[in-house]
Design a protein that fits this description.
Elements: E1 4-5, E2 30-37, E3 41-49, H1 60-64, E4 67-69, E5 72-76, E6 82-85, H2 87-100, H3 108-121, E7 133-142, E8 154-164, E9 175-180, H4 197-212, E10 217-221, E11 229-232, E12 236-241, E13 244-247, H5 258-269, E14 273-276, H6 281-289, E15 293-300, E16 304-313, E17 316-319, H7 327-340, E18 351-353
Parallel strand pairs: 1-3, 9-10, 9-16, 13-14
Antiparallel strand pairs: 2-3, 2-8, 4-7, 5-6, 5-7, 6-18, 7-8, 10-11, 12-13, 12-15, 15-16, 16-17
Bound molecules: pyridoxal-5'-phosphate.
Length: 356
Amino acid sequence: MNIRIEKTTAPKAKPTDESALGFGKVFTDHMFIMEYDTGMGWHDARIVPYGEISLSPAAMVFHYGQEIFEGMKAYRTPDGEIQFFRPEENFKRLNQSAERLVIPELPVEDALQALHALVEVDKDWVPHNDGASLYIRPFIIAVDPFLGVRPGDKYLFMIILSPSGAYYSTGLNPVDIYVETNYVRAVKGGMGYTKTGGNYAASLAGQDEAHKQNYSQVLWLDGVERKYIEEVGAMNIMFIIDNEVVTPELQGSILPGITRKSVLELCKKWGMKVSERRISIQEVSDAYDAGKLQEVFGTGTAAVISPVGHLKWGDKVMEINGNKIGAISQKLYDTMTGMQYGKLADEMGWIVKLNG
Ligand SMILES: *Cc1c(COP(=O)(O)O)cnc(C)c1O
């Protein structure tokens, strides 16, 4: 794939205080953009100055939500090199999302080429602070100016980059989670396993309710029986019960997280008992009462491992591991971030160097 590169003539000042970056508010100098037209395929790959794009108000994405995205990071190692964590997994998953939303597939090699080329151009934007990273947001939208309901004939694939601060500025603090029993996020047969905007729009009301009750995130239950555990807002969820790592199986309504997959692989390598299966909130509550619920944590690219301190289900509030991070959660966090930031050897073959 040929990528045309047009560099900005007015580079922005880079943030001087990386600890004040927060998440998703600052964008780099450039972006990647490529178009798709039925009959032509993907064409006109280019890296251009970051800026606004112009679309028809009738563009299909605005009306029927034909949109998919990914979320990944670039990390800077102590010797200044830049690297990615399993980036091909993100682009494979983008294609799984594409298939469900009838969006044309994007060759994984082309997407990876675009990623490396864009991060190379903006590599000075990759933060240096411990725990900070360059958040990467690839996405595809349908842009035909047409109000009929059908898959688009015209799409844009774009990648934008956002330097982001450390998720945990004061160590791994446990989060408080609220079990949502009214709203549901997705059902089997729907789009739950895809990263598409609609799933997040569907989650906002529940999230809002959780915030009102001073909980930071929602734990979703299955959409049919409201009994079985699904996942958290943008994280998969794991329980350590009686020394076994248990996480909901991938059955179509939850996101197949790359962090989830990596954590399961690591736990297996460490000789732990791991099971992907249906698990009800009642089972978790019973394990808690029996003193067998040792750790609960979320897994996702943003936080890597997010220990749960309190889990509220109806009137019951379970305090997990004395509201402290558990030993396995800590070990997983240290191992994963150690590899990502190049401080630990990559024994799993998960790291890809920029242009490597
Ligand atoms: C992105 C996401 C995850 C985590 O996936 P990772 O690949 O580990 O970042 C989990 N659940 C939802 C709903 C997500 O959007």
